[in-house]
Amino acid sequence: AQSVSQHNHHVILSEAASLELGCNYSYGGTVNLFWYVQYPGQHLQLLLKYFSGDPLVKGIKGFEAEFIKSKFSFNLRKPSVQWSDTAEYFCAVTPGGTDKLIFGTGTRLQVFP
Amino acid sequence: GAVVSQHPSWVICKSGTSVKIECRSLDFQATTMFWYRQFPKQSLMLMATSNEGSKATYEQGVEKDKFLINHASLTLSTLTVTSAHPEDSSFYICSARGGGRSYNEQFFGPGTRLTVL
User: Fold this and answer.
1) Any residues with CB less than 8 A from the CB of B33 and at least 6 apart, and which?
2) What SS3 state is found at B106?
3) How far is B116 from chain A (nearest CA, A)?
4) Is the pLDDT of residue A74 over 90?
5) What's the pLDDT score for residue B93?
6) Contacts of residue B55, Cβ cutoff 8 Å, sequence gap at least 6
């Protein structure tokens, strides 16, 4: 079945550590790609998005993601995490020709001071 | 800008009753609104897509007679859970999409937690 996979379910890091969260999708053709963050008790917020062009996308709060078409991946990275990055992170895909957001299962990130 | 609100934020009801959840786009006109359901420790699952002035399109497996969606204006969509049962208990989230440059981006509401006793 076509899907969006986030293999890291729970990540625990110390402040200043580097972060990489994996996201793979199984849809062919053109896709739009998103990373959303959900801070505790808050609603989903867009971190960054990729539609076309430069496959390295920079988002808010120092996050970036790289679209690797050959690997069907859109991994999220941050060189140095902060305690305030503690949140749930969701990768999402809009398959070509549709306007539906298909979400991954999410990754819970905990950052300790 | 691009704020989406939901009301109520949480609701507890008895089995068999109906519950209405509102989703409003506060500072933009939402041509399309989406309704999602999120179970504990799981991802968001799209339930239906609604376009202003037309019938909602439901995802496979979602009962349209149970989850009634109305998108009567460009700033308001409602989800009514009819004859709710305990298995309908969940976190319901709406999102809204406007036109123009933000056409490909959905803005999410804070969610409504429904508990059916």
Assistant:
1) B23, B25, B49, B50, B71, B77, B94, B95, B96, B97
2) coil
3) 21
4) yes
5) 96
6) none
